[in-house]
Amino acid sequence: MIIRAWLALVLLLCCGCFKIDLYAPHGMDVTLLPSDEPVEVERRWRTWYVAWGLTHVDNTMPDEYIQRENLTEVRLITEDNVPDAFHGLLYNVLIPIGLVPQTLVLQGNRPPDEPSAESAKDVQAENSPPP
Q1: Of the candidates 74, 68, 8, 21, the residue with the CA atom closest to the CA atom of residue 49
Q2: Pairing relationship of beta strands 73-79 and 41-50 according to DSSP bridges
Q3: What is the pTM of this model?
Q4: Mean pLDDT throughout 29-58?
Q5: Tens digits of per-residue pLDDT, 21-43?
Q6: N or C, which end of the chain has less CB nearby within 10 Å?
């Protein structure tokens, strides 16, 4: 009975409630993509929460990536993976400070007439005069 109680406590400590705000940056028209639509851009990052997911430690939300990549169609996926579970175990059971990570995956498409950031840099380098 004691083992079951400890196991239940450990499982509860590994849980969290996360809030992720997905909104378009100011002045941009952005639509949501269905799950089966192909994408050209994918960005993956880990965001951290304290108090088991109640508040953010960092302020890295999807709108920054949407604006930086100039995406007009986006899809956001919250991913549960082994490194996040390990961090949850470490910071909630072994060192109980309530620090919880969540991996986010932002996928999207740029406007059809918009070149990628890499190709724009290549064109700029080709058109610049030699030093």
Answers
A1: 21
A2: unpaired
A3: 0.68
A4: 85
A5: 777 888 888 989 998 999 999 99
A6: C
CB atoms within 10 A of CB 47: 19
User: What integer pLDDT is reported at residue 123 of this predicted model?
Assistant: 46
47: β partners: 102
Cα of first residue to Cα of last residue in the chain, in angstroms, is: 76
Burial class (CB in 10 A: 0-12, 13-18, 19+), 50: middle
Residue reference for tokens 């175990």: 89
| Rounded Cα distance, 50 and 101, in Å | 9
The total of other beta-carbon atoms located within 10 Å of residue 101's CB is 20
DSSP secondary structure letter of residue 94: I
> Dihedrals φ, ψ of 23, to 5°?
-145, 160
- Residue 31 token pair: 């639509």
Extract the tokens encoding 22. 């997905």
Helix (H) or strand (E) holding 2: helix 2-13
**Measured torsion, CA atoms of residues 9, 15, 17, 20, in degrees rounded to the nearest 10:** 160
